[in-house]
Automatic annotation (TrEMBL):
Pfam families registered for this protein in UniProt: Cation_ATPase (PF13246), Cation_ATPase_C (PF00689), Cation_ATPase_N (PF00690), E1-E2_ATPase (PF00122), Hydrolase_3 (PF08282)
GO MF annotation list: ATP binding; ATP hydrolysis activity; metal ion binding; P-type calcium transporter activity
SMART domains, sorted: Cation_ATPase_N
Organism: Dorcoceras hygrometricum
Protein name: P-type Ca(2+) transporter
Residue ranges occupied by any Cation-transporting P-type ATPase N-terminal domain in the UniProt entry: 26-100
Length: 1029
């Protein structure tokens, strides 16, 4: 029931009274008349079309600014904001300049000269495309979750009600009518209540878990947002009552808009993730190392392009060869290309992108790729209770009915955690056997109730959602679990196809004709119903203590009514206390069939004398008197079934879980006891970060957004989360489920381990290439590997195995190990030593096979001179630059496949003639790196315990890489581009004989690593402790 509106006449013109933009007007501290005067409007007529146009010019549309974020160009440029990528970019530019210079001088074939820089540019572009594609995909996934803002509003303009005006068209001064279930479209001042009470769920903005009662009365100007009882805010929801409101703020001027702006500003300054910091540090170190080695190689060979004579003790007669200077500069560039893991940025991006797809399958949508890795080192998860640890769906957990005597009660445990009536049942319950006391409880729960439950989704799946107050929806679900009496069940209507069949039947039997709305004074709600027998009943539900104060009788099991004495009162209060200690929200049920005589003929008509009584809420307490108490129910927001196990998994993984909640202390502690947690505090996130922890924080409301930005990983709720919370987050949970976070942490750890595997593989391979070129320069032998070959190996040949290592299955004990520290080194001293040992062998093998071909007729019993090539001494090979001074030096022609190499000038044997030796060096490099990828399956685990077939993708990738290598060997055009020739069977046997020992070497190193792991771990802990101190 409630009060009608008052007629204020038509709207005044705004021509001379337009309010300045941004003028401060605290509507909550002004009375209704002042607010209407301020906005030159009256609530019954609303604004005119001219008013709306003028105000829209001033205030714009009622919508939050769409922060488009960086443009595609900006996203592409961001992909180059990486030290390794920048080094590679410089190498590409230098290579391009040298290729251009060589072309002008009539040097290399044009196609060969430009392959290297063009391929480097290509991989940089591909890397950028993958990164941009993933970030756009994440944002598109979020778009599907954006359904929290109100889309329509019921507005009064020019005296007419517009029921479905798009909410974005609202302007300050608009008059809006709100009803139960409406999403509030703007910040508004409550002008009048159509119902006696108005309650709004504004937890998404303020963090309050209880709905807030609203009033038309002004409050003090300096109150906080919770104290503005006469204001309703955009993005919140009406859960009880109807009202008329005046729009005061729209768009970015609303409270939710202000927080939206703050979050956008905060997002401009984000710290790099632990992995990005480590990779940048590694890139800077690599830059310095490359610079030193390149300079050293150039200096070692300076004698070949710069010479002088000493005259009178001073250097004179300088001779400089620009051609040889550029040749050795190209060797230095080749060294840079060898040192840089060109494929690493792309492989890391690909691995993270694959990780996001795996997480998406587990309901975790990652918005920022590096967040995948950060999850892996999470040490603390701070979770809000509502909706993450719990279902965010109220459910009845216990039903207490009266017994056969006044001092006895019956208790029924109720199963189920959702709004689906088929989820769980009432324990020890016999269907159809409802005694009169249970029938009355079912009637009250079904009829004294404004909520509804329906199946969601277009396919009407089993997922049910509530419309209205969650507690009332839970009561209706209880009614469905109780069922109907057997005599009534046989006559039910078959036309109803909704979820609440039993509630539908009870409402047919007892016709509701009036409502006594809930208020905080009497803490109850009542409905007057007209039974099919013509009798009037008042059904009441509310706080148990308040109902007992107004009850004089109690209904027993058989339906008889007896006086409510002290004994029966104590039994009821004892049941109340027991449920309260379980953090259940308890509601009592009562009724009376002895209403005042005035109601005997009342049919809901506004002309009836009884209607006058109902118009004044002050009469409700007296009407709800001399009640008959029938029972009580305990409700809760239950923990998700899978959460206790997820919490236990976190404990085993060394991750602490803390609850940060706006609920009352008892409720939070009870939930935490049930799932096995201790309660946290509001400042816990900041304190944990200050102590060096890596913190993941969950949240759904606007009030959670600052904490989401503060945490290392902000996790927003996809279903219940506000848009502001999602924009502040790094990851969004599509199912709002805590266990999805735990699964994502496990996936993050696995991804980090896999990234370490392919980083270990790629870096050790690159160290080998550097060692090869350095040895070549130091020994003075002809160049064995040219830049385009190194680029091919780093990019194409190494790429598939490195990517496949990202598919390594997670270790079985991955969630049984403590989290790594965020400052743990990506490459430990022991791992670096292993890199150097393996890299040194790669260098020796590639240079060694080059020397063997020139100097040996056979090796390990393998004949090498079947192609007819000439042998030279090592001294001749090391001084090949002096070939033109050698007397009687001749060489024989040799074959490679169908090709025959002849030399008019014997010295060309060390230029064009080195093509076979180069091919052997390249093939050994490829073979060693393929076998080395098997070593990378596990950091310390032997291939005996983790055989190659645990990752079939790696075996496939190795086959692809070998196939690609065969392609460039045996396709003549590609062989010319890469400067190589086909190999014979004996030569392949030599390649395998030189390459296979890399597995044995690393197996020995792994064995030493396993034996010394305890010592190294102890040293690392002492080092970490020292840093912390």
């Amino acid at each position: 029931m409630g009060k009608g509106g008052q007629d204020y006449g038509k709207s005044e013109s705004l021509d001379d009274k337009r309010e300045p933009v941004g003028e401060y007007h605290p509507a909550w501290s002004k009375d209704v008349r002042e607010c209407q005067e301020k906005h030159q409007v009256n609530k019954d007529y609303g604004l005119t079309g001219d008013d709306v146009r003028k105000r829209r010019q001033i205030h714009g549309f009622n919508e939050l600014e769409k922060h488009e974020g960086p443009t595609v160009l900006r996203l592409i440029l961001d992909q180059f904001n990486d030290t390794l990528v920048r080094i590679l970019l410089v190498a590409a530019v230098v290579s391009f300049v040298l290729a251009w210079y060589d072309g002008d001088e009539g040097g290399e074939m044009e196609i060969t000269a430009f392959v290297e820089p063009l391929v480097i540019f290509l991989i940089l572009i591909v890397n950028a495309i993958v990164g941009v594609w993933q970030e756009n995909n994440a944002e598109k996934a979020l778009e599907a979750l954006k359904e929290i803002q109100s889309e329509h509003a019921s507005v009064i303009r020019e005296g007419r009600k517009i029921s479905h005006l798009p909410a974005r068209e609202l302007v300050p001064g608009d008059i809006v009518e709100l009803r139960v279930g409406d999403k509030i479209p703007a910040d508004m001042r409550v002008l009048s209540l159509i119902s006696s009470t108005l309650r709004v769920e504004q937890g998404s903005l303020t963090g309050e878990s209880e709905a807030v009662s609203k009033t038309t009365k002004a409050v003090a100007e300096d109150v906080d947002i919770q104290g503005k009882k006469c204001m309703v805010f955009a993005g919140t929801t009406v859960v009880n009552g109807n009202c008329v409101c005046l729009v005061t703020q729209t768009g970015m001027s609303t409270e939710i808009g202000k927080v939206h702006s703050q979050i956008q500003e905060a997002s401009q300054n984000e710290d790099d993730t632990p992995l990005k910091k480590k990779l940048n540090e590694f890139g800077e170190l690599l830059t310095a190392i490359i610079g030193v080695i390149c300079a050293l190689v150039w200096l070692i060979n300076v004698k070949y392009f710069l010479s002088w004579e000493f005259v009178d003790g001073w250097p004179r007669n300088f001779k400089f060869s620009f051609e040889k200077c550029t040749y050795y500069f190209e060797i230095a560039v080749a060294l840079a290309v060898a040192a840089i893991p060109e494929g690493l940025p792309a492989v890391i991006t690909t691995c993270l992108a694959l990780g996001t797809r795996k997480m998406a399958a587990k309901n975790a949508l990652v918005r920022k790729l590096p967040s995948v890795e950060t999850l892996g080192c999470t040490t603390v998860i701070c979770s809000d209770k509502t909706g993450t640890l719990t279902t965010n769906q109220m459910a009845v957990a216990k039903l207490v009915a009266m017994g056969s005597e006044a001092n006895k009660v019956r208790s029924f445990e109720v199963q189920g955690t959702t709004y689906n009536p088929s989820d769980g049942k009432i324990e020890n319950w016999t269907d159809g056997e409802l005694d009169p006391n249970l029938v009355m409880i079912a009637k009250i729960a079904a009829i004294c109730n404004d909520a509804d439950v329906e199946k969601s989704g277009h396919d009407k799946s089993e997922h049910c959602v509530a419309n209205g107050m969650p507690t009332e929806a839970a009561l209706k679900v209880l009614v469905e679990k109780m069922g109907l009496p057997r005599e009534l069940g046989s006559s039910t209507s078959s036309s109803y196809d909704g979820v609440l069949r039993c509630s539908y039947e009870w409402n047919k039997i007892e016709q509701r004709i009036a409502t006594l709305e809930f208020d905080r004074d009497r803490k109850s709600m009542g409905v007057i119903v007209s039974s099919i027998t013509g009798k009037k009943l008042l059904l009441v539900k509310g706080a148990v203590e308040n109902l007992l104060e107004r009850s004089s009788y109690v209904q027993l099991l058989d339906g008889s009514v007896t006086e409510l004495n002290q004994s029966s009162r104590e039994v009821i209060l004892k049941s109340l206390n027991e449920m309260s200690t379980r953090a259940l929200r308890v509601l009592g049920f009562a009724y009376t069939d002895k209403l005042p005589e005035t109601f005997a003929t009342y049919d809901g008509s506004e002309d009836h004398p009884a209607h006058e009584l109902l118009m004044n809420p002050a009469n409700y307490s007296s009407i709800e008197s001399k009640l008959i108490f029938v029972g009580l129910a305990g409700l809760r927001d239950p923990p998700r079934k899978e959460v206790p196990q997820a919490i236990e998994d976190c404990r085993t993984a060394g991750i602490r879980v803390m609850v940060i909640t706006g609920d009352n202390k008892d409720t939070a502690e009870a939930i935490c006891r049930e799932i096995g947690l201790n309660q946290g505090t509001q400042e816990i996130v900041r304190l944990l970060k200050d102590s060096g922890e890596v913190v993941a924080m969950t949240g759904d409301g606007v009030n959670d957004a600052p904490a989401l930005k503060l945490a290392d990983i902000g996790i927003a709720m996809g279903i219940a989360g506000t848009e502001v919370a999602k924009e502040a987050s790094d990851m969004v949970l599509a199912d709002d489920n805590f266990s999805s976070i735990v699964a994502a942490v496990g996936e993050g750890r696995s991804i980090y381990n896999n990234m370490k595997a392919f980083i270990r593989y790629m870096i050790s391979s690159n160290i080998g290439e550097v060692a090869s070129i350095f040895l070549t320069a130091a020994l003075g032998i002809p160049e064995g590997l040219i830049p385009v070959q190194l680029l091919w190996v780093n990019l194409v040949t190494d790429g598939p195995p490195a990517t496949a290592l990202g598919f390594n299955p997670p270790d079985k004990d991955i969630m049984k190990k403590p989290p790594r520290r965020s400052d743990d080194s990506l490459i430990s001293p022991w791992i670096l030593f292993r890199y150097l040992v393996i890299g040194s062998y790669v260098g020796l093998a590639t240079v060694g096979i080059f020397i063997i071909w020139y100097t040996h007729s056979s090796f390990l019993g393998i004949n090498l001179i079947g192609d007819g090539h000439s042998l030279v001494t090592y001294t001749q090979l090391a001084n090949w630059g002096q070939c033109h001074t050698w007397q009687n030096f001749t060489v024989s022609p040799f074959t490679a496949g169908t090709l025959e190499f002849k030399f008019d000038n014997p010295c060309d044997y060390f230029h064009e003639g080195k093509v076979k030796a180069m091919t052997l060096s390249l093939s050994v490099l490829v073979a060693i790196e393929m076998f080395n990828s098997l070593n990378a399956l596990s950091e310390d685990g032997s291939l005996v315990s983790m055989p190659p077939w645990v990752n079939p993708w790696l075996l496939l990738a190795m086959s692809v890489s070998f196939g690609l290598h065969f392609l460039i060997l045996y396709v003549p055009f590609l062989a010319r581009v890469f400067g190589i020739v086909p190999l014979s069977l004996n030569e392949w046997l030599l390649v395998l004989a030189v390459a296979l020992p890399v597995i044995l070497i690393d197996e020995i190193l792994k064995f030493v690593g396993r034996c010394t792991s305890g010592i190294r771990t102890s040293n690392a802990r002492r080092s970490s402790k020292h840093k912390a101190e």
